[in-house]
């Protein structure tokens, strides 16, 4: 955390090395997030580049992040994905298959089958959630962001995010029973 703050201060002072280090630190995370939202590697590459172009523009115009740099990056990525879908008349969708879920490395075929079956059931259940609920689940559990960061990304209050998360988890519990 302190290392990140130091990098951010250096980036604000137009230190090219610090900007490069921030890119190295976050570009893969942002790319993965965008890829999971679009399912197109070229689109994800282009939008990831655009995220960092916007970061540079914001630094140069002195329009910095307010609370969390990481949440700010995800917010930029989120907005770019929404713009992408608006331009292409498509509907944004989040699929459980695209989440970075840990699976078993067990050689036991029965255990692997159970894990795969559970993931398939979870995938079907998540598809029944509202788009906002899906997005909260992806950001909180897929991306590992805090409620505050998700609130900043989705431009909602922390209470609203926690409410969405609670309703999403309750809905998943009902669906999976």
Which tags fit this structure?
single chain; 177 residues; mainly alpha; Rna Polymerase Sigma Factor, Chain: A; Arc Repressor Mutant, subunit A; 74% helix; 0% strand; globular
Write the layout of secondary structure elements.
Layout: H1 2-12, H2 16-38, H3 41-60, H4 69-87, H5 109-127, H6 131-142, H7 147-154, H8 158-176
Can you summarize this structure?
74% of the residues lie in helices and 0% in strands. The chain has eight helices and no strands.
Q: Tell me, rounded to a whole number, the average pLDDT.
A: 83
Main sheet summary: none
**CATH top level class name of the largest domain:** Mainly Alpha
Which percent bin holds the helix content? over 70%
The geometry reads as globular
Rg (C-alpha, Å): 18 Å
Total number of distinct structural domains? 2
What does this structure look like?
The chain is an all-alpha fold and 177 residues long. It has 8 helices and no strands. Helix 1 (2-12) packs across helix 2 and helix 3 crosses helix 4. The protein is globular. The model is unreliable at 95-101 (pLDDT under 50).
